[in-house]
Amino acid sequence: MALKTRVLVTGAGGFIGHHLVSYLKGLGYWVRGVDLKRPEYARTAADEFLLLDLRRWENCVAAARQIEEVYALAADMGGMGFISSHHAQILYNNSTINLHTLEAARQAGVRRYLYSSSACVYPEFRQTAAAVVPLKEEDAYPAQPQDAYGWEKLVTERLCTHYREDYGLETRIVRFHNIFGPLGTWEGGREKAPAALCRKVAIAKLTDNPQIDIWGDGLQTRSFCYIDDCVTGLHKLMRSNHREPLNLGQDRMVTINELAEMVAAAAGIRVVQRHIEGPQGVRGRNSDNTRLRAVLGWEPRIALEEGLKRTYLWIEALVRQDLGGRRAVSG
Ligand code: NAD
User: Fold this and answer.
1) What are the pLDDT digits (tens) for 4-42?
2) Cβ 179 under 6 angstroms from ligand 1
């Protein structure tokens, strides 16, 4: 029997990394997961899981040892509330993680390296209207990315391109557009809009108080992609010959208010939206999937309503536990 390909997933204790490890194990790969922490909500399926801080060079060397393919997902990361208020920390941490991981992979003789970039690399000047034109890969330049988070992603994209051109390391670059699903951060300040709305709606339902807070007027637009589609797309991109950055997301745009209504429908309740001050990011953002379809012959297919339902049910169970625990303590 052929030896299994040895894969490293960095950020394997996080949301996408954890799901990707399970998916790759299902396909028969040998997988090493690396992260600062183990997955919080389920056991990892990785063959080996190393707790390492990838800002440190020697840890990146250990992570890349005897590895053939790398999915580089580790990042200091969160929703708008987090990335709009931790610029220095994010730029320092993510730069050191990515500089060291890529160079260690090269020195270890890694054959393929997939870097997880973001729609945050797209220029803010193209995203000033809610009815935004969907973003094509070439729209990233001239550059004006969102926040330090987006600048770091753009620079590491360039680094991957230069490593391929100068050293022959086969790099792949994916630009995610709002990935969501169960087993992701849902409280604590780093959660993104779908998880935050699921939590707020679950609290509204379980406490019989229909009011939920939404940052801004809620008319800002985004597209959202369910996690199962995300990991399928990641693996397809790794196996493809496409070397330029590629969008990975849905191209169905909704407002945040509409997203909140969909979550409420999944919960089977009506909510009252209260709009409050809060970071909103760009006014509108959507993915142009023309190249994704052409390159992979595939695009995400799980309906937003279906993905939200699965995510909501997972978060509702956690909120129920949380509220039950608090009642037990106060009672
Ligand atoms: P996540 O925060 O759940 O996972 C990132 C993981 O990286 C975390 O488990 C964290 O502990 C780990 N990490 C952070 N610093 C580390 C360090 N110094 N050493 C080792 N591990 C470290 O985020 P996610 O949603 O799974 O995102 C995965 C990747 O995809 C990230 O690079 C992120 O920037 C990118 N991305 C995600 C989205 C999305 O919608 N979720 C959108 C755009 C880009």
Assistant:
1) 999 999 999 999 999 999 999 999 999 999 999 999 999
2) yes
